[in-house]
Amino acid sequence: MGINLLTTLFTKLEDYYPEMVEIRRYLHQHPELSFQEVNTANFIASYYEKLGVEVQRGVGGNGVVAKIQGNYPGKTIALRADFDALPIQDEKDVPYKSTVPGVMHACGHDGHTASLLVLAKVLHELKDELHGTYIMIHQHAEEYAPGGAASMIEAGCLEGVDVIFGTHLWASEPTGKIQYRTGPIMAAADRFVITVQGKGGHGAQPHKTKDSIVVGAQLVSNLQQIVSRRVSPVESAVVTVGSFVADNAFNVIADKAKLIGTVRTFNEDLRDFIADEIERIVKGTCIASDCSYSYEYIKGYPAVVNHKEETEYLVQLANDMEDIKVVEEAELQMGGEDFAYYLQHVKGTFFFTGAKPVGVEIAYPHHHPKFDIDEQALLVAAKTLLSAAINYK
């Protein structure tokens, strides 16, 4: 691919940047939760249909897949963007604030979608000069397991694909920075549910009860020993209890307590070990207190493991781009991403694109009610993905 063509593609992206922002803001105002993204999916599919691009609706659920065929033979490259929102009330004071009570794009998926749509528009306009085939995967339900990636793959979105690239707008890092990592970059994300069954009673007569709250509190403490005392210090793991519910009147000892939490790991053997350790601790703690229990461990997304060759390829391209000022290795992230499933089927890499809002020292984190991004990062993400796609041989 010639330098002049790449320059033309980048110039077109820059010309369409206002449209990119407009799309992002529209989606931000009209968010939809995981597995409920009917209107968003229709917006995406309609965009392609108006361009005259081949598009498939309802892929593995609410997924949308578009195909752009270059004029010359070449590899088949997939690019992926997710488009679901979160059950969070938007607390930003901006013109594009969410109009849906209790739902907002608090993770940048609106930006991912806007970048990929306009990138696709540019590819379509210059398809006669391009080599290969370009598959645009617009994925639903990234935020909530089982997610949308697995069902879209099962529906055939990766058929014939040679390589896949994806990025996540990263509000903690400044615009102009790309972060990469070979091998594991994001953790497996699992969930567990523990129910302690005691014997309720009057708060003034604890000796006649089996206090599920006391047992639950012991479990919260005891579970911390898994990472601190049962996992090697050179391994990375997290065990977090995020919900502890034993709702009762102030003078009643709870009959039942329910604990829900998450486990994050990079190693599959360690993942299984921790699942077993949780039950061992639950069982022992409940036996000691003469309570019964139920335990459920739900495996979520596996770890995101980037392929070496494709990651090194991306790094080389990023280092040659004027819009990118810093290219650095990312720290391991304990957050989960179902992009992991794509990388289990085809070669590829997933990277972070800096998107910290301008003028702030510390950005609101992802999944925060005041989360926002620097929209200039949409253009950086689009250029990086486009360069990766058309240069791949």
Features:
single chain, 393 residues, alpha/beta, Aminopeptidase, Alpha-Beta Plaits, eight-stranded mixed sheet, four-stranded antiparallel sheet, 10 helices, 35% helix, elongated
What are the SSEs and their pairings?
Blueprint: H1 3-15, H2 17-29, H3 38-51, E1 54-59, E2 63-69, E3 72-82, H4 109-125, E4 131-139, H5 149-154, E5 163-170, E6 177-180, E7 183-186, E8 188-197, E9 201-202, H6 212-230, E10 237-245, E11 252-253, E12 256-265, H7 268-288, E13 292-301, E14 304-306, H8 308-319, E15 326-329, H9 339-345, E16 347-354, H10 376-391
Parallel strand pairs: 3-4, 3-5, 5-16, 6-15
Antiparallel strand pairs: 1-2, 2-4, 6-16, 7-14, 8-12, 8-13, 9-11, 10-12
Structure write-up:
With 393 residues, the protein is an alpha/beta fold. It folds into 2 domains: 3-186 and 303-391, Zn peptidases (Aminopeptidase), CATH 3.40.630.10; 188-301, 2-Layer Sandwich (Alpha-Beta Plaits). It has helices at residues 3-15, 17-29, 38-51, 109-125, 149-154, 212-230, 268-288, 308-319, 339-345, 376-391; strands at 54-59, 63-69, 72-82, 131-139, 163-170, 177-180, 183-186, 188-197, 201-202, 237-245, 252-253, 256-265, 292-301, 304-306, 326-329, 347-354. It has an 8-stranded mixed sheet, with helices on both faces. It has a 4-stranded antiparallel sheet with strand order 10-12-8-13, with helices on one face. It starts with a helix and ends with a helix.
* Mean pLDDT across all amino acids: 97
CATH H level, superfamily name of the largest domain: Zn peptidases
Q: Alpha-carbon distance between the termini? A: 10 Å
> What's the architecture of the largest domain in CATH terms?
3-Layer(aba) Sandwich
* Order of strands in the sheet with most strands: 1-2-4-3-5-16-6-15
Number of contiguous helices? 10
